[in-house]
Amino acid sequence: MPDSKASTPRRDFLGGLAATAAAIGLGDLVAQAQAAEPATGTEFQSWLESIPGKYRQVYDAPSANNGFALIWSHVFLMTGAQGYGVPENELGVVLVLRHSAIPIAFRDELWDKYKLGEYFKINDPTTNAPATRNPFAYIKPGDMPLPEAALEKLIARGVRVAACAMAIHFQSMRVAQAAGVPHETVKKDWLAGVIPGIQVVPSGVLAVNGAQSKGCSYCFAG
């Protein structure tokens, strides 16, 4: 039977955190954390355990930066196999999309519906106008200098891609306010529009920390 005295400080802390978070509109996130408290492991921890390989790298992408985080992920897989003399499955890559890089994680229809190219100031490489589709996934000729770095191709090669839930929360709130529509409607739409194979994580900074705790070397990519 658990020691109720030992658990009191943690529960008091979570209770205080819940009250503070509720005041800034993050009550749902804290509720999820409290619900997970008794568990021996979380979905996030299981995702971290899935990082493959002996040689590991995490790319921290707070902005789209013309897709360089994807390009560098491909370059690491290509040159790591050569440099270390190992098969590609001995290389682990984590790509963390946070802050203004989160539209990279979204399907084309979200880019079109919410004018994400205009909002995030990302142009379509083929037209030089604000992108109404994702130019980093399922790409067209001319979108990226290295087609092998397209998002879905990296995922198929074992790259672990994380999308920041905090960024989704706050960026969707701003877009919803500008459009005059309910925030929860936009947020739900964005979460449903994440490209398959991408893990939505509690926060991007947490994913960077977690990847490093699993032996990933850090590289800023934004």
Largest sheet: 5 strands, parallel
Quote the beta fraction: 5-15%
Mean pLDDT: 88
Instruction: Enumerate the spans where pLDDT stays under 50 for 5 or more consecutive residues.
Output: 1-11, 33-39
| Count of structural domains | 2
Biggest β-sheet: strands ordered side by side in the sheet: 4-3-2-1-5
Could you state the CATH homologous superfamily of the largest domain? Answer: DsrEFH-like
- The end-to-end distance, rounded to whole angstroms, is 48 Å
Please identify the structural class as seen in this structure. alpha/beta
Give me the CATH architecture of the largest domain, please: 3-Layer(aba) Sandwich
Give the fraction of residues assigned to helices.
Answer: 40-55%
What would the principal axes of the Cα set say about the shape?
globular
Determine the CATH topology of the largest domain: Hypothetical Protein Ychn, Chain: A
User: Mind telling me the C-alpha Rg?
Assistant: 19 Å
Can you offer a commentary on this structure?
This protein has 222 residues and is of the alpha/beta class. The chain folds into two domains: 1-38; 43-220, Hypothetical Protein Ychn, Chain: A, CATH 3.40.1260. Helix content is 47%, strand content 13%. Helix 4 (68-84) links the parallel strand 1 (55-61) and strand 2 (91-97). Helix 1 packs antiparallel against helix 2 and helix 8 (165-179) packs across helix 9 (183-192). The longest helix is centred in the N-terminal third of the chain and has 20 residues, at 4-23. The chain starts with a helix and ends with a strand. The relative contact order is 0.17. Residues 1-11 and 33-39 have low confidence and may be disordered.
